[in-house]
Design a protein that fits this description.
The chain has 3 helices and 3 strands. The protein is α+β, with helices and mostly antiparallel strands. The chain has a 3-stranded antiparallel sheet with strand order 1-3-2. Helix 1 crosses helix 3. The radius of gyration is 11 Å and the shape is globular.
Length: about 70
């Protein structure tokens, strides 16, 4: 269990840095950038959302993720 928690935390950090460096991304773009498992990216986004670090919105072409200002 602890290993998975570490992996989710690391993925959350990578997502945060990708959003900070490149601005808002679609969920698909984030998954491609991170080359991680789809579930791991989803878990990490949930973590960031729970900590109120990201805005997640539905758009015509999918889901958009941005850092909260």
């Amino acid at each position: 269990m602890e290993i998975m928690k570490e992996q989710v935390g690391e993925a959350a950090g990578k997502i945060w840095h990708a959003l900070n460096d490149f601005g808002p991304q679609t969920l698909t773009q984030l998954k491609k950038k991170l080359n991680g498992s789809s579930d791991l990216v989803d878990f990490a986004l949930g973590w960031l959302a729970r900590e109120d670090k990201v805005d997640i919105s539905r758009e015509k072409k999918g889901i958009k993720v941005a850092l909260k200002q």
